[in-house]
Batch of 2 targets.
Target 1
Amino acid sequence: MDWTALSLSLQLALLTTLLLLPAAVLVARPLAWTVFPGKGLVDALVVLPLLLPPTVLGFYLLGVFAPQGVLGSAWLALTGRSLVFSFDGLLAASLLVNIPFAVQPVQRAFEAIPREAREAAWCCGLSNWQTLWRVELPLAWPGLASAMVLTFVHTLGEFGVVLMVGGNLDGATRTLSIAIYDRVQAFDDSGAARMSLLLVLIAFAAVASLHFFTRKVGRRGN
Amino acid sequence: MGGALEVELRQQTPIPLDCAFDCAPGELLALVGPSGSGKTTVLRCIAGLHSATEGSIRCGGANWFGTGVSLPPQQRRVGFVFQNYSLLPHLSAFDNVMMALGDVSPASRAETARHWLARVHLDGLDGRRPAQLSGGQQQRVALARALARAAGGPAALAGGVLLMDEPFSAVDQVTRRKLRAELARLRQELAIPIVLVTHDLDEARQLADRMVVLHRGKALQTGSPEDVLLRPCSPAVARLVGLTNLFQGTLIEGDGKTCLEWAGCRLTIADFPSGAAGWAPGEQVNWVIPPEGVLLHRPDHPSRGEAENPVTGTIIEALRMGSFTQLTLSIPGEAQPLAFQASSHTIQRNKLGPGQTASVTLLAERIHLMPKE
């Protein structure tokens, strides 16, 4: 078992989820409730990472993350660190790749909140901020929970983009899924099997707990 | 602290509005009209959920809308009972009411919430979520929440305005009757303007002090329910309030007073409504009579001129509806039929049916004149 890779994977998944979820709420809320020219285009852009082959995505990211690339040079100037073959780059790629997994469930959840629920809150004197915290987020909770679990589990298992952008550096960019690939290449089948089983168990536990919690919320709501 | 609500709204889109009305503290004003007439939009304008193109909304002297001002809903003291109640499903009845008490001091908030829940007879059900309540109970929570917002603490039964959008349309008839009676009782103690949107004329008649008839966003008539329902100011209002006995006639001079000539009959008029019309002989007018103003003569005692405004016609339809029978009479010289009711017992005993001749009295005091459309 490659414990460093496991720890790296968990860190990456946790950070991606924590950073992406608030951003998803910010993006999904206006997408759910407002109609603006080009909304279809934005919707399509949000889904795009889901449909592109990870290698294609990785290839383009490598271009913009490179020290002479748009994002890479800016990041280098800002922090003095590189975006390729580093944990920073891995996290940035992970955030982009997971946009559909975070935004879509949250958007669906906000769409399901009746307009009258918000209007009732406003008529009760709740500010927009209070309405978000006390009405919208509790009602959208099942969608937020799905977004959380999907993003977390998907990040744990991401392979192609991670390999393209991060490479395979021990302790910096070698995630669990890459370590598994590594083990198989080295004919260490039992090592690969142990790590694979662990990923299966984590994914299963995450999805099962999601069902458990959202069902509980569903009971509460109905 | 309490004050009247004054509303004046004009817009072309999304639906046209052109109306003005006011509502005094303690008064219940009903906005009636067919669906699409703009009733709900008017209510949403008052609440601040929609902005009309121009106009003004003032409550208790405070400017809510107009002259460049448009306060958000949060800054208007509005208790809104939505048509589908819009209770928050994740909160208990108690918390739904608590939500509206942000302005009340935290120390007395819980007590105030309990007070309003008790006022709508929901004590003991505070902890239930909307899904665990019946439709009628949900309606009461919505009312308690709106009252908590509009009227504030128990000591101050004044301040804002209570708006209700078809509040009884989603409950069964028995519950509806009960809730209406409770609202009638409750409102006696409320010193705030109450605006009720309804398409149910009975509801308006039972609950409202005054009603506004809206049609395509225009306020056609404002007045007491009795005035509007029995003395509509125009044929359009008569049609909207369901008066079907709407005819045209000519005023004539007869026996030294003005009478109404219609379908070859000379009808006595008891009352000439004041207003723009001069009611001079020779003038063409519209007139209306409610079904209750038409009395069937006993066939075995034909009238010999002594009855008031006698009219004879042929029965087109006799529709039995329980203890009453709905009769439609064709009058010679008039294209439109005359509708009225008689007790089913009388119809049966006299074997009255389609094709037979019947004579009726048109009560002079129930004949209502309107300027010709």
Target 2
Amino acid sequence: MTAVVEHDFDAVIIGAGGAGLRAGLQMAQAGLRPAVVSKVFPTRSHTVSAQGGITAALGNVSEDNWHWHMFDTVKGSDYLGDQDAIEYMCRHAADVVYELEHYGLPFSRLDNGKIYQRPFGGQSRDFGGEQATRTCAAADRTGHALLHTLYQRNLMAGTTFFTEFLAVDLVKDRNGAIAGVLAIEIETGDLHFIKSRATVLATGGAGRIFASTTNALINTGDGLGMALRAGLPVQDMEMWQFHPTGIAGAGVLVTEGVRGEGGYLLNKDGERFMERYAPNAKDLASRDVVARAMAVEIREGRGCGPAGDHVLLKLDHLGADVIKSRLPGIRELAITFAHADPIEKPIPVVPTAHYMMGGVPTNVHGQVLSQDAEGGDRVVDGLYAVGECACVSVHGANRLGGNSLLDLVVFGRAAGQHVTHMLATEHVERPLGEDALDPALDRLERWNLSSGGERVEDIRNEMRRTMQNDCSVFRTEEVMQEGIQKIEALQERLRHAHLRDKSKAYNTARVEALELENLMAVAHASIVSAEARKESRGAHSRVDYPERDDENWIRHTVYFAGQPLRYRSVNMKPLTVEPFPPKKRTY
Amino acid sequence: MRFSIYRYDPEQDQAPRMQDYHLDVEAGDMMLLDALMLLKAEDESLTFRRSCREGVCGSDGMNINGVNGLACVTPMSSLREPVVLRPLPGLPVIRDLVVDMSQFYKQYEKARPYLINETPAPRTERLQSPEDREKLDGLYECILCGCCSTSCPSFWWNPDKFMGPAALLQAYRFIVDSRDQATEERLADLQDAYSVFRCHGIMNCVAVCPKGLNPTQAIAQIKTLMLRKSA
């Protein structure tokens, strides 16, 4: 019998990015005892890489209104976002941003001392009118500033951290409710069961399923893997955002804020081609629109460089002062990774996998939803999901820039509030069976007993190449069907792969093997859902079904491991305001 | 490309050793972290931390040819061979290039790195002039990689008592924030022979900071404020 150290907390939060830290802070401030489990030291979470800002209709630069923000988000989602959740997010946006400011976040400032805001893609005034200026920024390091501020605030509030602990699997009680998580302490290899009455998944994205991604190496979809292994669904997994401006070759992100500040894209003829694709918004059209336009330019032979494989992002005309004060981080990245100082030269950029709009389905309180036999929503007791790993769904088929950080703090807070309320008003017990930990322990044991077979590294590379080639910006039936077969073959091979290093102390090879199981689960969900959706909507662009099909496809895909794909209706009923019916989407 | 890398596995090794590695690929635009990942593909026991691979998360601080830096933003073409890699100096080694950073984090926490303002928060933001906000530039960008503190001889000698450049940079970041009201308490906290005053202006921290920050200057500002207070 493997020794497992037991802990007991009111709540356990898995992941210490913006969403997890905001949830933990809410609970700690309410007097609960939350524990945050993170496989990296909290400030190394991927939120740190967010650059451009957090969107809220503060109206500091020009008149603004949360309802306009809601309209833009619904339209940006290509009408796949749930309108109750979008209303909830946009209504609370200003409050959560002011809270962050009060916590100490070093926002850039306007001359009158208020928070600096910049224009971002897809933002409009008066329901589709002129460009709005809605994204609150700390230079181009907003994610860094936000993550550090929230970590610091959690230190102040006394949140308990299990730092460098890798979550292995959710643990269920006798009634099927979630009762905590089994985790490996990476430094020692020891196992810990963190028992809790509420468990919050806040594990972020999984961009590492693609060969080329802006995502950190830790973005391996651990929460989705855990949910799927627990028999729970993931939703809208075909919806992957390709960010227009990843540095060519390196994949490193260049914020949309560059275009917000006045930068624009050029093809090899020096043409500002976005004028042809989006005559009004131009370079500040929605990300899916810009990324597709770039891919078309490159495919039709108007790409730049010897291989014609990228376009250029020009910003030298902004002047050295603006670049140094508003975009210092971008300048540093461009010099390091593209050998181009943007004060003098344009940055070579290419659409790069960036953000997972799909995830574990939840309601506006962050409670995870599964389905009953009739396909109705069923709340999973004891389990929440927030941030990129969740699908509440505010981003639908395409996320607007600046809405990701907002999603983290709005729903991190909402989940924290709901857990606090639940524990105060209900008698919650999670009675455990004797074999509660067995599934998680079996998973670890499989790797410990492996005595031959392929390298994790080789299977991972093949998976990433397959997803890149078969399920990327443009998709077709035939290629994806082949892709599904390849991923399923890789899944089978992974079941027999070999962990050569079986040491206990700081074994990152074991971490990577477990991470690949999560990635593979996400990859399969993504390509199966993408093959099923026979239309083009938002980021999901089918060459063989180029039109949006509102009659059949205003519905979420719902994927359970090992089962036929299911569906769920999109919520078209906002909380208080009139719905925004689907319209043709132009920018 | 040739490497000589510090290896130590606490379950197997009595003492650390240096191991030679060889990679048969063109350096091109490759960063040191890319090379390390290729080496790990061959020898999965080789252990190091990494995450963002773009110099903002601070995971992969290590000693590279004798100088602390981040592997992910160090071009291979800038390094003489064999590339000698050791863990950040002065902290206990857990395994290979992974050090135990608890002492470093403890000093960070000692700086009380959070805004203290007891007045009721307004309904909207607290105002801050662009000039006051500018005072935070060069301070808030720290990524806690530890390159500075572990290059500092004063921190090597007294890691438990001298807070080190990273923590002091944070201390000053809150002292100088116009929204923070605890300047007096913060300065009082630092009032001993070690916390600040073990900094002798050697400036190794400035030389190695991968974000181009200047902890020595921040420490000098703290000293000035403390002297002014005691005068």
